[in-house]
Specification:
The protein has 338 residues and is an alpha/beta fold. Helices cover 47% and strands 16% of the residues. It contains 12 helices and 12 strands. A 7-stranded mixed β-sheet has the order 3-2-1-4-8-6-9, with helices on both faces. It is globular, with a radius of gyration of 20 Å.
Length: 338
Amino acid sequence: MLAISPPDQQYPLVSILIAARNEEAIIGACLRAVGQLHYPANSIDVLIGNDQSTDQTATLVAGFVRDNPAFRLIDSTESVAGLAGKANVLAQLARQANGQYLFFTDADTQVSPDWLTEMLRSFTGNTGVVTGVTLPEGPSVFHKLQTLDWLYNLTLTHLVGSVGMPITAMGNNMAVSKEAYNAVGGYESLPFSVTEDYTLFRAILAKGYGFQTLLSESVLARTEPVGTFTAFLQQRKRWMRGATALPGWIVGFLYGNYLAGPLLLLIGWFSPVLAIGLYLSRLLIQTMVLSLGLSRLRQTRLWPYALLFDGYQLIIGPVAVVYYWLPTKIDWKGRKYA
């Protein structure tokens, strides 16, 4: 159950929005984590949207809701403004949310007990959106490398964001003020995207609101890693589709990073010394970024896997780029998107 404390003006009403589609194996852990938040129960409004699940997701959520009055189950049976998938569900949940702030997480994610209080601290001035940090967690070496991959990229996002350059947001660990959400007209006023979190993030910034990208253990959430290489490539294809909307120089940097192996081999053909120098410089920067992220998030137990990370990056990058350009649709939760 949610921690209960007397009503207090310092605790604004918040709404937590969770879209769920065929998540029977893991949604229980998500809801239990939300139920253990260090925040007054009478200041939390939790909305779970059942996105036409064909398994026992709705039944499991309904059972949990019966014993937790702060939780509500909402069935998504229609399309809002032509939206589809997760964006459609979140649009419907936001319409029914009562909170001054909207917190977003996923059904396969477990947030930290201090998630709400720590994220709310960053809503100062004209801040409209705050992003936490999420890491996948699993037992295999492939899972550990995914954890390092997320950690590396989210640490970079934090560092760039700390100098006022917005990159993206994490839809499974994000909060927006209701004022900022309403200012952009909600999801129903935004173009459909398979990376709906990034679309909302950019729209809020375009309205003049500020952002915060946090890198702290207090807002660290856990999620499920992808289990197969095919699912991994599908995940990257979806992310890369969203990344095409980033500024051109960032897209160029991302391609350069993904294709570092082939580019270094090409440079090495003409100038081996230059190629070695570039590789060592890249490895140094990568190690420094990883060191910061591992230390800040207290994940130093992952250091042994960091020895494999550069090889992982050099192999995964070109494969992901090739897969992205293949004429196949994005498969997300059993739905196909062009």
